[in-house]
Amino acid sequence: MDPAIEAKAYELLAKLYRDKSPPPNRPFVTVTYAQTQDGFIGVREGPPLIISGPESMILTHALRACNEGILVGINTVLSDNPMLTTRQVLHGPPFLSGLWNSSSPNGQPNSPRPIILDSKLRIPLNARLLTRNPLIFTGQVVDISKADKLEAAGGKVISVSTNEDGSVALAEVLIKLVNTFGIKSLMVEGGASVIESFVRTVAGSHPNCLVDAQVVTTGPNSIGAGVKLLSSQPWSSFNHMFTETSRFGSDTVFVATRAQ
User: Fold this and answer.
1) Which band of pLDDT confidence, cut at 50, 70 and 90, is reported for residue 51?
2) For the sheet containing 213-218, what is the strand order?
3) Neighbours of 155 (CB within 10 A)
4) Cα–Cα dist 145/147, whole Å
């Protein structure tokens, strides 16, 4: 924890979120990820790649505190077993926004509700996120017994439509988040395939862009090989309303919102 870095993070995020409202029928969606100098967001094998430094981690936790939900894919749950809390910040955002059902400026930070995309219900029963009452979006539930055990452990299993590739239908997930669960702001944190599925909707030919803001951290190192976003120049079609670049330690952070 570093109060000065936290204050700097919230000063930057206020420019993204102050006076914003969610779009019709879905939450306000912020996609965030870290990349190396040569554009890789992860490695194909081995332990998770640590790209950004401790200052950027405080920014990430402040970003979590600015959102009511945080979305990850099942691969992130299986590889990292995360908690997705706001433990690196001391306070909630010191500004008001229409993206929260409730807010207490300078009060204790709220950790966003976890949302997991898990089309085949692979989440283990000992996943740490189950202690945080996650929403688990899956396809047709085949293993009713496991679904019951997940709900007994604290999860909420929701069946939605799936795409041809077997992934869950994002638009349907977002509609349920806002209409059924009242989540008005959503942070998309990973992994690579989930980020890709959202970024793909940014393309100019896509009729329904599902991204409203981006927070991209570029670390100081290159790795030469790994996982990149498949979309070529993924943000080139993003209709920017506001952009800013800031330094957090050795990292460069680019933030932007889309014109609504």
Assistant:
1) confident
2) 156-159, 135-138, 113-117, 69-73, 185-190, 28-35, 213-218, 251-258, 240-248
3) 24
4) 5
| Cα separation values, 48 from 28, 42, 44, 113, 188, Å | 28, 7, 9, 23, 18
Strand-pairing partners, residue 73, are 117
Residue 42 has pLDDT above 60, yes or no: yes
> pLDDT tens digits, residue range 63-116?
999 999 999 999 999 989 999 999 999 999 988 788 887 655 568 899 999 999
Q: Give the pLDDT score at 62.
A: 96
Nearest Cα neighbor of 56 from 88, 79, 80 is 88
SS3 32: strand
CA-to-CA distance for 17 and 252, rounded, in angstroms?
20
Q: Are strands 69-73 and 113-117 parallel, antiparallel or unpaired?
A: parallel
Note whether 120 and 167 are within 8 A (CB): no
DSSP letter at 125?
Answer: T
Task: Tell me the per-residue pLDDT of 10-31, one tens digit each, with 9 for 90 and over.
Answer: 999 999 998 888 998 999 999 9
Give CA separation, 41 vs 68, 124, 190, 198, in Å.
25, 25, 10, 15
- What is the average per-residue pLDDT within 109-129? 96
Question: Is residue 226 scored above 80 in pLDDT?
Answer: no
Supply 204's token pair: 């100019």
Q: Which CA distances in Å does 163 have to 76, 130, 135, 235?
A: 20, 26, 19, 24
Q: Which one-letter amino acid corresponds to residue 163? A: N
